[in-house]
Specification:
By secondary structure, the protein is an alpha/beta fold. The chain has 29 helices and 26 strands. The strands form 5 sheets. It has an 8-stranded mixed beta sheet. It is found in: Cell membrane.
Length: 801
């Protein structure tokens, strides 16, 4: 290739050296199956038949010219037959499965099923007295027998179980179990015929396959070994090594997604390459022959695939790795692309549902980008004087970003603009972390001290990855909102094509460079030197933390603020305080101990000095009180109790404790949610923008108590009680008479917050209403014209599972 050629040139010459003959066959199987899953089984049959006809017609001509494509056309014909026959018939069987009709009726069913994948946790943020964590799991299974009412349903289809985490988390692939519940129709392009919402624990459990039991024992051993690491690193290492994210912090998971690094926790070709490459490298040092080395690596590959589990990306990587090792044993080189094509075709024929799996698509496209684009672009950079190692380190994540962006954009409705940089920074530590982790997994059960040492060796790498992801997620404009769905994906693909074509044109390159330079000169200084957020002289900010509360109150000192409540989970409140430039928190007030008010406490301490944590008289729920007490004790932070009439002062900020006026005499175990809400600490803050009434989640009886006791409630700004629930008395709003009202509420919540009648009553008393679910972070400021609300305008979306 000419070193001076552009990196975007992808003409015929640039593909020389790659064996493309299996590509048409693989694309026929993949796209033909995907079309059938989306539109009907007959489309798959037509696509397969068309491929057969095309292969025969082209094969006759190729034989006359002794073309090297004859073998490829033979593969196309075979895949066409398989696509039109077995694959199309499997899709048709799923479309006409009797259980699908029962699901459409919402029937109750008792089914005997066989688990096909490890249970996937569905995490939820904390709310009320429910702590954050995994409450549900999703389990893929195939139906053995099913009974609805008195009728036995004729079905052998796939089903998804939506089950309680307790009792269902430990199931393993290959295990039989009986489940009862209500059916619902499945969604999306897949072979799943129904979704079963399970009631109760599993029954009639069958034995686990011995290899799955052994693999789970090794995974559990790795999790136990990782307990010697800090909490976030302990959850990340099993994800890096075997894709086990069961103990991963939701905050770390979100940051890896926003920074474009989530693929590191999905076992795929990279993990397979590291494991097999390490084995081959060791055997090469020992001067072992290629065939023996390939056999040893194949054994390691098989064990790793079982250890990681039968996820689509794992199976794709495993099949591709096996074909590559076979090529090594036979002495063939340059077999990456045929191996990928073989893996795609084989897996889609064996399991047609993979054709519509996003993880499978991302894995295949990323591998194709690394094989086809990265080497050419690296060669171009080397020709321009860039050292080979740096060129490869830059082009590998860039190629992966380019080919996967359309799928990610359509799937997630967003694009990470920092993913290339974060993956370049992450790349050097992924391999050693994976190698140390795999060795710890294998050695740990037999030699615990050595396993612990190996796990400790992963801590620097895991810490570095968390640091890169955290800073990448916080970078201005790290995530760009994008239309989701098919149109969003096509728009992203079209934009990339236009960009790549433009790079080939000299004048277009100059224009792009000028536009990029102008953007850097205009937007970067604006965001860094004169950022739009936070507004100057803010007095209070209602942080967008989802379905929960967190309000920052500025003091007269730069970077110093009091915080009232911390939201439902670590991360969002930390990000809000970082945007505000707050690095000193003299006091954190927890209005009450419900999960959506205390869940983010631990993240406030990170990188900040905290003077004390204050609570009211309530100690319920017990687990929450224990969590707060343990967290403050561990960090050596004083834990105080506020009392009515107490006053706290800082420069340009004062806090008066108004409530709770009535504390229940019930024991901790007897207190329900309403009692806990009514025990919220009520504060009146004096700020330059006016008085702010902070009400926690008080409901009708506590509001009545405050009015009956004659508390001074009038305030210019009201933090609306209980996320704007319907339990807000009009008389209470009249007593406060706010000019501005802050409703801290999560987008897409299922609790009916905020209630329309409450919003109407706020408007009736003359309040301007701001909601974090539609306005994002909202600041209260005092300017020359008086009190004003400034909205950041980037609300947090619904909680992620």
């Amino acid at each position: 290739m000419n070193p001076s050629a552009d990196p975007s040139e992808v003409d015929t010459a640039s593909w020389r050296g790659q064996d493309l003959r299996l590509i048409p066959a693989a694309m026929t199987a993949w796209l033909g199956t995907l079309s059938g899953l989306l539109g009907g089984w007959w489309i798959t049959m037509l696509c397969g038949a068309a491929a057969v006809v095309l292969a025969i017609a082209a094969g006759v001509r190729a034989r006359r010219t002794a073309s090297r494509w004859v073998a490829g056309l033979g593969a196309l014909a075979v895949l066409g037959v398989l696509t039109a026959g077995p694959v199309a018939l499997r899709i048709r069987a799923a479309e006409h499965d009797d259980l699908r009709a029962a699901a459409a009726r919402g029937s109750d069913v008792t089914a005997r099923v066989v688990v096909t994948e490890r249970p996937r946790p569905v995490r939820g943020a904390g709310y009320a007295d429910r702590r954050a964590g995994t409450r549900l799991v999703v389990i893929a299974a195939t139906v053995d027998t099913a009974v609805t009412g008195e009728r036995v349903v004729d079905s052998a289809g796939r089903i998804l179980l939506l089950a309680p985490a307790e009792g269902w988390t430990g199931l393993l692939p290959g295990q039989q179990v009986t489940a009862s519940g209500r059916l619902a129709p499945s969604k999306g392009a897949e072979l799943t015929v129904a979704v079963l919402s399970v009631r109760g624990p599993p029954s009639a459990l069958g034995p686990e396959p011995w290899w799955q039991r052994a693999a789970e024992s090794l995974r559990a051993g790795l999790r136990e070994l990782c307990a010697v690491l800090p909490e976030e690193q302990a959850g990340l290492v099993p994800g890096l090594v075997v894709g086990d994210t069961s103990t991963l912090s939701p905050r770390v998971e979100r940051e890896f997604t926003d920074s474009g690094m989530s693929h590191l926790m999905a076992v795929s070709g990279g993990n397979v390459a590291i494991v097999c490459g390490s084995i081959l490298l060791l055997l090469r040092v020992l001067r072992v022959g290629p065939r023996t080395s390939a056999a040893a690596a194949a054994a390691g590959l098989a064990g790793f695939v079982v250890l990681a589990g039968p996820a689509p990306s794992v199976l794709r990587a495993g099949v591709m790795g096996a074909v590559g090792l076979l090529a090594l044993a036979l002495g063939r080189r340059g077999s990456a692309l045929p191996a990928l094509a073989f893996a795609v075709a084989g897996l889609v024929v064996a399991d047609p549902a993979m054709a519509a799996d996003f993880g499978f698509a991302l894995s295949v496209l990323a591998t194709a980008g690394l094989v086809l684009l990265a080497p050419r672009w690296a060669e171009w950079l080397v020709g321009r004087g860039v050292p080979a190692g740096y060129a490869e380190g830059l082009t590998i994540p860039l190629a992966a970003f380019v080919v996967t962006t359309p799928v990610i954009a359509g799937m997630a409705g967003s694009v990470s603009l920092v993913s290339v940089v974060t993956n370049v920074l992450a790349a050097p530590v992924v391999a050693p972390a994976t190698v140390f982790g795999v060795l710890a997994t294998v050695v740990g059960p037999w030699w615990p001290s050595a396993g612990t040492l190996l796990v400790r060796l992963t801590e620097p790498e895991a810490s570095w990855l968390i640091t890169v992801a955290r800073h990448g997620a916080r970078a201005p404009g790290a995530v760009l909102d994008w239309p989701d769905g098919w149109w969003g994906g096509l728009l992203a693909a079209g934009s990339l094509v236009v960009l790549l074509v433009a790079i080939r044109l000299r004048h277009a390159r100059i224009l792009l460079a000028v536009a990029l330079a102008a953007g850097l000169l205009v937007f970067v200084p604006v965001r860094v030197l004169a950022p739009a957020w936070p507004p100057a002289s803010w007095s209070a900010v209602a942080c967008d933390v989802g379905q929960g509360d967190a309000v920052a109150l500025a003091t007269g000192e730069q970077g110093r603020a009091v915080l009232v409540d911390t939201g439902p989970e670590p991360g969002p409140v930390d990000e809000c305080l970082s945007r505000l430039g707050v690095d000193r928190v003299p006091l954190i007030v927890l209005s009450h101990l419900h999960a959506d008010h205390i869940g983010g406490l631990e993240s406030v301490f990170e990188g900040r000095s905290v003077g004390a944590v204050a609570v009211g008289p309530g100690r319920a729920p017990a687990w929450a009180w224990q969590q707060v007490a343990d967290e403050t004790a561990r960090r050596g932070i004083p834990l105080l109790e506020l009392e009515i009439g107490q006053r706290l002062d800082w420069p340009r900020l004062s806090l008066d404790v108004l409530g709770p006026r009535y504390v229940t005499s019930r024991s901790v175990r007897e207190q329900d949610g309403t009692v806990i809400n009514n025990g919220s600490v009520v504060l009146r803050a004096g700020t330059p923008a006016g008085r702010v009434l902070l009400t926690g989640d008080i409901e009708l009886s506590a509001q009545t108590d405050l009015m009956a006791e004659g508390a001074e409630l009038r305030a210019e700004i009201l933090k609306v009680p209980h996320h704007g629930s319907r339990y807000t008395a009009p008389d209470f709003l009249n007593a406060v008479a706010p000019r501005a009202a802050l409703v801290s509420v999560g987008a897409g919540n299922t609790y009916g917050h905020p209630n329309k009648s409450t919003l109407d009553n706020l408007v009736a008393v003359g309040a301007s209403v701001a909601r974090t679910d539609t306005d994002g972070d909202t600041a209260v400021v005092a300017d020359a014209r008086g009190l004003a609300l400034v909205r950041r305008g980037e609300p947090r979306g619904p909680p992620r599972s």
